[in-house]
Write a structure and sequence with these properties.
Blueprint: E1 3-9, E2 25-32, E3 35-45, E4 48-49, H1 51-62, H2 66-75, E5 87-93, H3 97-108, E6 116-122, H4 128-134, E7 139-144, H5 149-159, E8 164-169, H6 178-183, E9 193-195, H7 206-214, E10 245-248
Helix pairs in contact: 3-4
């Protein structure tokens, strides 16, 4: 049976959470001040989430974090970086116009807006991708005839004219502040890439359920720093996923 995906603010947990009757459980994403801080599954019965279990799981997911939040609240938010590098957002796609339309709508709503938005049409069989891009005047279209996602991403890196290129997928929907968080680490000139948390939009099919169970894009809710002198630089699957990543273009030269 499908799983509902619901989101709650930990300081404003509703008394009742209702979902569609077809769901037998729910993936609950807990947020604090809008930021995801934990996730867990709870059962659903007759269209209602098991709220006692939700509260128990929420306490379990956050019990080792509350002291740090109290410190952060006392100290106040860290100062924002004075400057962030200009960035191109790139989407590599092939023959998925509906997904691409939804992704571009989200990217065009980002705050701050990127310096450029680029769609790389990988080995196209039709003109459908070009037609979608034509509906977004601020988006640039590039065709890459070599098949494969790697070829498409490399083309985006060579086409971009900004110091940083951020990548998302055509079936993803970045949140409004996605780019702000993705670029924040680049205030440190030593940072070469950054990634972030990717959550499922829905879990309505067996394929989606299996993917989220065995090879999810999420890498946890805590910030981590990877150092090439202490971590295996080849084990990139531990770091993040291409649906949510940004890299400095000068890594090509290096």
């Amino acid at each position: 049976m499908p799983t509902a995906v619901v989101q709650i603010e930990i300081d404003q947990v509703p008394r009742i959470l209702s979902v569609a009757d077809r769901h037998t459980r729910a993936l609950v994403i807990a947020r604090r001040h809008g930021r995801p801080v934990g996730g867990f599954y709870v059962s659903v019965r007759d269209g209602h989430v098991d709220m006692p279990r939700l509260h128990a799981e929420l306490a379990r997911a956050t019990r080792n974090k509350t002291w740090r939040w109290k410190v952060d609240d006392y100290l106040g938010a860290p100062p924002s970086a004075a400057t962030r590098p200009e960035c191109t957002v790139a989407i590599c796609t092939r023959e998925r116009p509906d997904d691409l339309t939804r992704a571009l709508q989200a990217v065009c709503a980002l705050r701050p807006q990127p310096a450029a938005i680029l769609v790389v049409d990988n080995h196209p069989a039709t003109s459908r991708t070009r037609e979608v891009v034509d509906g977004f005047p601020i988006v640039r279209y590039v065709r890459e005839d070599r098949p494969g996602l790697d070829a498409a991403r490399n083309r985006a890196l060579t086409e971009a004219r900004t110091p940083v290129v951020a990548f998302t997928d055509d079936d993803a929907v970045p949140e409004t502040d996605w780019l702000e968080h993705l670029l924040r680490p680049f205030a440190d000139p030593r940072v070469r890439c950054s990634t972030g948390l990717t959550l499922p939009l829905e879990l309505e099919t067996p394929a989606q359920e299996w993917f989220e169970r065995y090879s999810p894009f999420g890498r946890g809710f805590e910030r981590r720093v990877f150092d090439g002198t202490r971590h295996d630089p080849v084990a990139v699957n531990l770091v993040g996923a291409g649906v949510y990543m940004a890299v400095r273009r000068n890594v090509l030269d290096e």
